[in-house]
## 1
Amino acid sequence: MALFNKVLASVGIGAAKVDTKLHSGAVYPGSKLEGIVEVRGGKIDQEIDDIYLKVQTSYETEKDDHKYSVNGEVARFRLAESFIIKANEAKDIPFAFNLPLDTPVTIGKSRVWVSTELDIKKAFDPSDNDSMKVAPNKLMESVLHSINDLGFRMREVECEEAPKWMRRRLPFVQEFEFVAVSGQFRGRLDELEVVFFLESDNAADLFLQVDRRARGLRGFLSEALSMDESTITIKVTSDDIPNMSSKLQSVISQYI
């Protein structure tokens, strides 16, 4: 019977199981994520080589003019070294770690989840996925609210593969896309694209792409040659929050 149970466990039947419970509600980039990993033994004793917690998201990439979605790893944490989980034993492993500053926020199409994996030799590796809610931090909120105050509406938010010149730690960035629906930029801009590169809770590089609306023959020619787009990088800090709208308005106005 013991041998039969080993055979079943090798394909996941009667093997150890894992369940991760997140203690945090909404978190934000750079904040602490806490929880507990519950490991439950199966019908036989098993040696667990490693337990890994991975923060993951998905992003759009393109190959041969075909777009598709792939999973990307934001962070990986090793929770435990080798140990034996006995048959029917319950073992709880608490964890706490800071999310990377470049963790995407869960707005629009963007999803973030924690994947927990047990590494068991010569056996099926149990896993567990748990969705997370990642909110913008105060600096990001200030920028997003200010863009809204300037008459822009958020149209889409998604993670996309970044061109090599734009990449930092990760191969993708989270892009916020806006359209002007009121105010001074309505009818003058096709869209505004924003990417955050957080340096800390209180500072960020802001990448803006301003897409001007074609007006007249010269405008249409510029659009056809992709000359109607301007890219800008500015630094924002928590000191800018009281006057964020006027700062962004001044910057964007220079490129229309």
## 2
Amino acid sequence: MGAPFDEKKDEMTTAPLMVTVRNGKGRRMLNQAVQSGYVEILEDGGHGGRGLPSSGDRRVITMKTVEGDSMVKSLTDASFVPGDKGAPPWVGNILATIISKTLPKGMEFGRYSIDYHYLRNLLYVEDRMGSKRADRHVPSYVRALTRSYAKDMEVLRSGGSDRAAGA
């Protein structure tokens, strides 16, 4: 996560990526990849010591993405009916170009993607298991990461459309 989406710069296979290690097995897998020479840990900067790219602010766009997600809408709005088909490819291409110019870049994009997926998945797990059972299953690092979105998520869960972010 955080790889530049620009073929003129780093390719996806060489750009710095953010990795979340969730447990001992994940740690062993990462260590094996490092020992095999497939992965290099860059804690203090990118290749050759250059800084890891990061710009923008993920918080508002993260909640907008969560609010616009069809799965989230189906969980939070009983009247939501998904469309039969998506937009034509040319419309999608235009939107992708516009969106790519407004999204956070680099590491901040990686953080946006992680925040969005954890928030969406948290809503799904809570819906399927109930909040008490979900509390036992959702890892503490996810709770810590999503804590800063608590007010926005409460508004979303209650079916409200006015977000607390930036208010």
